[in-house]
Specification:
Blueprint lengths: L1 E2 L6 E2 L18 H7 L9 E2 L7 E2 L2 H15 L8 H17 L6 H5 L3 H6 L9 H10 L9 H20 L16 H14 E5 L5 E6 L7 E2 L5 E6 L2 E6 L10 E2 L8 H12 L20 H4 L7 H7 L6 H5 L14 H9 L21 E2 L1 H17 L4 H17 L1 E2 L7 H16 L3 H18 L5 H16 L4 H22 L7 H21 L9
Parallel strand pairs: 7-10, 11-12
Antiparallel strand pairs: 1-9, 2-6, 3-4, 5-6, 8-9
The structure holds zinc ion (3 copies).
The site of one zinc ion has 5 residues, from loops.
Length: 537
């Protein structure tokens, strides 16, 4: 589903020089552009000559911005404040819609809008009237916001209001009758913005801007989402991560699913004012009124242990990944030498073994980082590769959870998010130092952890797969074994990214899938030109 922002999204000041403020296209670094590209506009953004602060692809994008909003903000020194900027943009957008002077900047900013919007039968995003209407219905939770925050909003609202009067922004609609909205109304806008805003990210999931997308905000949250929010320029795309049944709720996630239970609950409560009742959190809410039928029969004296045993499916996940122990002393302190020893034990899977879907695997005697990696990858990757249905995949995943729960594991527990965080930063260090073998092993471990925590088609899984495949391919000493595994992981990556990023041409998300395919061709050539020994065990 495509939906639009209520007003032009606000780029983080630190990201302004890398993105066009109108179409949000990413600037190609001059060095890379020099080798491949033709026109100057493709590699360098042009700066507004008056404020020297905002960047645009070219004259066209600048003109759209100037007529649409930039002339009203160009000289405003307060625009360095994100809340201030967003509020001012929202007010201007709503007023221009009310007085009929709104021009659709989105379709005029994207020269290829006609093709990008309608290929594959996708309808254009909703009309702005609807966007604005939905914004008026969103919850701002201003009654539960703390007084300090509201005081801050009031100060911002007052400043925005005075500034709009000072620059003589035309409030000529019948609703406004020459006046900007009252400070109280502006505070409501800010509250609504804060409970419903989105961080806009690029294809690599790096955030760069904040946006108000009222229609996208209607989707509820789940810690096990079946949809993901992506962006094409400044259009928001809500993509299904799996087959969704008729009548089943479509949920995205407001927080990172890799965050532990307590932290997630805190984040959701502080920013969005709710307790999560998703399939992963449900158990937490027992005894709070809307629990499942079966738990009503629970006797009060039932011990915690018995309650744990009753947990099934996603409800086990948080128990599994909980814990902050890592390092030789379990105090969370790790160093390179110790980490190297932990991850070196991992045996890279053979490419062939990731293709064969078999019955559920027997769990190892004890879960270490090595046996965990091998067990998860062999259990789940073949199902993803074969395009198993969601029900089949879930059944396998829950079987995996059950085994992880009932089998002994080494100390520190290998599958906590703490271990994952350390592994991720060590993975990046190894990539920097071109220690490809070790990087590949850690990369496989991280992939296993991701598959345990995130939906299989989550963009993070695909992006990580691509990095892992490159690392494997770079491990020249490992010869064809590593090349074959790289090819297998690329196939997995492509499958995932097609779902998470789509295949739209001329869009940064879709381009990523094509980048993976181009890389696959290179690897394929290498595989084709060498004799294929039987895959190693
Ligand atoms: Zn542009
Ligand atoms: Zn300017
Ligand atoms: Zn939840």
């Amino acid at each position: 589903m495509r939906s639009r922002p209520l007003c032009n999204p606000v780029l983080f000041p630190t990201h302004r020089s890398q993105h066009c403020e109108t179409c949000f296209k990413t600037r190609i670094p001059a060095s890379a552009a020099a080798a491949t590209t033709t026109s100057k506009s493709a590699r360098e953004l042009e700066r507004c000559s008056v404020c020297k602060k905002r960047y645009y692809c070219d004259r066209t994008c600048f003109t759209v911005a100037w007529k649409g909003w930039h002339r009203w903000i160009c000289a405003d020194k307060d625009m360095e404040d994100l809340d201030y900027e967003m509020l001012k943009m929202i007010v201007m957008s709503i007023e221009r819609l009310r007085n009929g002077s709104f021009r659709d900047t989105i379709s005029s900013a994207a020269p290829d809008a006609s093709t990008t919007a309608t290929t594959a039968g996708m309808p254009l995003q909703e009309p702005l009237e609807l966007t604005a209407y939905v914004f008026s219905t969103l919850m701002g939770h201003s009654t539960v916001s703390d007084p300090g925050t509201l005081a801050k909003y009031e100060e911002i609202a007052t400043r925005v209001r005075e500034q709009l009067i000072q620059i003589k922004f035309p409030f000529k609609s019948s609703v406004s009758q020459g006046e900007p909205p009252s400070v109280q109304e502006l505070i409501q806008y800010l509250c609504r913005f804060h409970c419903n805003n989105f961080s806009i990210h690029d294809a690599q999931l790096f955030t760069m801007a904040e946006g108000t997308f009222p229609v996208g905000a209607l989707f509820n949250h789940s810690c096990r989402p079946n949809a993901i929010v992506m962006y094409e320029g400044q259009i928001q795309i809500v993509r299904a991560l799996e087959d969704i049944e008729v009548g089943q709720e479509v949920c995205s996630s407001y927080v990172d699913n890799g965050v532990q239970r307590q932290e997630r609950r805190l984040l959701l409560k502080e920013k969005y004012y709710f307790d999560c009742h998703c399939p992963r959190c449900e158990e937490e809410e027992e005894g709070e009124g809307d629990e499942k039928e079966e738990s009503k029969d629970m006797v009060e004296s039932e011990s915690k242990k018995t309650a744990d045993q009753r947990k099934t499916g996603f409800r086990i996940l948080d128990d599994l990944i909980e814990g902050d122990q890592d390092g030789p002393n379990g105090d969370g302190k790790v160093d390179g030498e110790w980490l190297t020893k932990q991850f070196e034990a991992i045996i890279l899977p053979g490419a062939k073994s990731l293709q064969m879907v078999g019955p559920p695997l027997k769990a190892p005697k004890i879960f270490t980082r090595a046996s965990f990696t091998s067990y998860i990858l062999h259990s789940l990757v073949p199902l993803i590769q074969s395009g198993a249905t969601e029900a089949e995949y879930r059944a396998r995943l829950f079987d995996v959870y059950g085994k992880l729960q009932s089998t002994e594991h080494c100390q520190p527990k290998p599958f906590t998010t703490t271990v994952m965080t350390h592994a991720t930063s060590f993975f990046n260090t190894c990539l920097e130092h071109q220690s490809w073998r070790l990087a590949s092993k850690i990369g496989c471990f991280i992939l296993a952890q991701y598959l345990m925590i995130y939906p299989r088609h989550h963009p993070l899984v695909g992006l990580h797969g691509f990095t892992l495949a490159k690392s494997l391919w770079n491990d020249v000493e490992a010869g064809m074994t590593s090349v074959r595994l790289s090819y297998e992981i690329l196939g997995l990556t492509r499958r995932i990214l097609k779902v998470s990023h789509g295949i739209q041409r001329g869009d940064e998300n879709g381009d990523l899938v094509r980048e993976v395919e181009a890389f696959m061709k290179t690897v394929e050539t290498e595989l084709g030109s060498s004799p294929l020994p039987s895959p190693s065990a």
